[in-house]
Here is the input.
Amino acid sequence: MKITFAAQYLCAVSLCALSTAASAQEVNPGTAPATSVPTEVIAEPQPPKDLVLNAGTPITLAVSEEVNSSTHKEGDEFRLTVLNDVTIGQTVVIPRGTPATAEITWRTGKGAFGKSGKMEFELRSIYLDGTQVPLTGSFRQEGEGNTVATGVGVIAIGVFAGFITGKRARLPVGRELMAQVAQNVPFAANGQLSPSYNSSTAIKMAEASTPFRKCRASAKGLGDAKQEQAAMKKCFAERME
Here is the structure.
């Protein structure tokens, strides 16, 4: 079978075109090699972490009502307020003005012969949105003895010196007292008490922190009002602090 010149020419042109295309694909300085594009991984937002107010954090309180040894007795509570904001970082967790309480644990009235009245009390708790958070802090307040009049009375009129009395122990409104947080207290990131905070457990732990509180907790657990009252009197009388 004879192949014509035209057919040979067409075949040669086709082979040349194929060879040129293959060469262009193999070497093309203007084309970069294909690379794989990494997939961007977007991390899921993490919930904000709780804040913790550490045990021992100081809190300045101010007395909200006058307390003195003539009008108050053992077991009486009195009111205070938080004087300054308490913060964790930039977050306020205990605002200024938060109410607090203290309890008188022992007292004497103003004494004869110029002796001063004395009063001891413990800081108990603050109340955050009605939730009790225990504090620690014990204090004694003493009146100032009338020393000059006592000396004159004893020397000059003898037995009548008993009518010369000392001064009552007195806590005026605005008196500043330093309390401390009794245990670690968790807060949410927005400064509110964490739902995990258990006030009842915290109070029980605080009640076991001093001899007087242990005595009082034991007295309140007797279940009988008269027995409880008698036991409380014993707690106050022993002044076990």
